[in-house]
Amino acid sequence: TEFARTTALLSLICLEIANAYSFMSFRHKVSFESLKVNKYGSTLSSISFMFCGFIVSWMAYGTLAYTALYIPLLLYGINRYFEKGDLVSTVLISASVPLSFLSGHIQMSIYFLIIGFVYAFFSSWQNKSLNRFFVISFYMLIGLVISLPQLLPSISLYNQAIRSELFKNVEAIPLPYAITILAPDFFGNPVTRNDWYGHYAEWGGFAGVVGFIFAGLTLCMRNKSKYTVFFIALAFVTLLLALETPLASLIVSFKIPVISTSGTSRIIVLFSFAVSVLAGFGLDALLQSVKDKKQILKTLMVYFSVIILLVLTVWLLIFTGNLLFINEATSEHIAIAKRNFILPSTLLFGTVGAIMILYFIKNKLLYRVILTSLLLVASFDMLRFAMKWMPFDEREFVFPSLPVLEYMQKNIGIHRVYGPIGNEALLPFGLQGIEGYDPLYIRRYGELIQTATDGVIRPPERSVVKLNNSGVYAKKLLDLLGVKYIFYSKGDGKGSWVFPFWNYEESINQTPVYRDTVYELYENKDVFNRAFIVHNYIVETDDQKIIDRMFSTETDLLSTVVLEKNPPLTLEKCDIQEEDVVDIVSYTPNIISINLETDCPGILVLTDNYYPGWKAIVNETITPILRANYTFRAVEIPAGASRVVYSFNPYDSITSTN
């Protein structure tokens, strides 16, 4: 309940912050040129950014949207610094950096940092005061230093993850998808279960029909301010980087950490931000032209003719059965596009008409009514888009407890469960699966999972830990990983995504230990304990040979561990009188305490991932952690009763040699 309340509050705060920062950003002046946008333009900008596609799509996650929404705050601080140079501006500049980096998505924070430095340099150059760029950069670097407690462990994790090695141009936006800048549901919507083309959340560049029209108007205005040109360039460059263009591929080819290993399309948020800013500039420029009685009718007519022609061309393609030259489009897909293009077209024509009335009208009251109506239409458009995407549920439906989950909570201990359920459903209830942390999971663990197919090491999946259910060694890996229960949804039948427990009659009890009308749990009788003692070891330094040894029929992993180097002490032959006792008395994310008793010296194997930053203390003595069975942890233990404590310090992971 507290989690649900906090998450909902964070989502609402996200919108309010985006709204407030966007409104403030360009209400200040800088030397030599005014950035002050009137209240109508500032309001339109804030509405457009507050509910833009990227912010709305990622708002519920509480990470990506938050990293991006501090962009207006940073630019506001920079603008204020040039106007006043006061303490408030320097605090805003420095504080905005950790606020972004601590929000939880480093790729977006890097974009945030880049736009901050570029904007600071441009403003300094425009004001003929480059020394201010270095001052602003210094304040931003202070913010980076404040962010180091989060950044350093994150960099360590990134270096251990498979993602750090995959330099690919993934998630780039196909050119036909650019139509969603005007009509976000042109290819359907995941909420209504009719989306069929593209990645709705990753590719959202929508900033509102009204905002789009006024942003485009800045292209046609004469005597553009240098800041208008800056944001036009920002919109153009970021759109090229988000789309499937040679420029995007070129950036990826440079193999820039994080930038070249993540979805390139996410830079679309900077495009949406630029469009939102330009929308305010465009409305402000239009009203100023009307006030000064400038003759811009010809400009307006040319601009509106181009927009209307483009919209009519799209309609012509739709009615002729051509959905932007996408070959796989069916008649059903065309019907979706036709239905979802009606409202954007209507809003576009209505906005064009309202602008023309504004240009000619003389009555001040009607003038204000039309302006207010435009803002209300923009609000309706953006709010409708946001409410369609964002889920609203009763609090009791957030992570509701189910009988099958309650059964596992009572009976699974610290074993794991496997099946089509995912960590998203397990972690809130204190249950553990084999999936790891998506997408930054440890590379060696992913490689081990890939060996389930045939025992050959292959590059792991880019974002998810995916076990080949029909693999030769799938069952053996599940045993080693301590999977006690196979989770089964009756509606899945014998789909490829279901582990075929029915093929393992001898080792998996075919009578479910739990059953209800929807779910069943099957118990794995060969499951390994999370921690166990072995008294034999094999040393192999080659990765593939380690796997070969592990899966060899001659290797019993319950009695023998495969290490990569010799342990400090040699295990001597010993007469074992009684069975080893291993009791995990405490298991938390950062501290694991184990009591054990054995007649002979041995090696304690813990089937948790080997990772720098973990420290092992055996009987009050720091003991080296060995990498065991390709990716797990092991420590040498003496005969008799012992206490082993594993503890994790994220900052030790930066310099640890373990």
UniProtKB/TrEMBL annotation:
InterPro entries: Uncharacterised_YfhO (IPR018580). The chain crosses the membrane at residues 6-26, 47-71, 91-121, 133-152, 200-220, 227-247, 267-287, 299-321, 341-361, 366-387. It comes from the Bacteria. Keywords: Membrane, Transmembrane, Transmembrane helix. Signal peptide: none annotated. PANTHER family: INTEGRAL MEMBRANE PROTEIN, INTEGRAL MEMBRANE PROTEIN-RELATED. This is Uncharacterized protein.
